[in-house]
Amino acid sequence: MDKALFTEQLELTVPVAEDEETEQEELERLGPEKQFAVVELSGQALAIEIALAMRILDRPPVTEVPFTPEFILGVANIRGDIYSVADIRPLLDISPRADGKEDPLVILLAGSKYSCGATIESITEIMRIREKEITEPSTEIPYISGIYRQGQETILVLDVEALLASPEMTQFQ
What we know:
By secondary structure, this protein is an alpha+beta fold. The protein has 2 domains: 1-30; 31-170, CATH 2.40.50.180. Helix content is 23%, strand content 39%. The strands form 2 sheets. A 5-stranded mixed beta sheet has the order 8-1-2-10-9, with no helix packed on it. Strands 3-6-7-5-4 form a 5-stranded mixed beta sheet. A hairpin with a 2-residue loop joins strand 9 (144-150) and strand 10. The radius of gyration is 22 Å and the shape is globular. The chain starts with a helix and ends with a helix.
């Protein structure tokens, strides 16, 4: 084999290997990856970890419960199980829907101790986010554990465990 040709081939393969190592190191630096459902509430994107979301379904009939806060819409029978259904906007300091319509979907959230249905306008995507791509919010936002930026869009990461264990949500347990 011609020595010059061998040297050229060697030079071509070395940068590729270095790039692959650099990419792998970058992924390791960013930490483990989690899968999130990105939902919309009044124009705000909200990421909910898939491991804590049991399912997303069309809004079932909800039976109102007297003497509950406004954000508790009532209870619903979902496949034989009874769930509280809540509009979590007030808890997250998100404005109500501008059009005044009811949210058409419910996402069932399951924490370690409690579960609840939360109304949502839509699900926009399922995405994978690495731990270190999520930054701390610059100001404290109730039940938001971080912020993920995707281009110009800001996606709030919901702390499902904190929300479900909050005094507002557990006062009727």
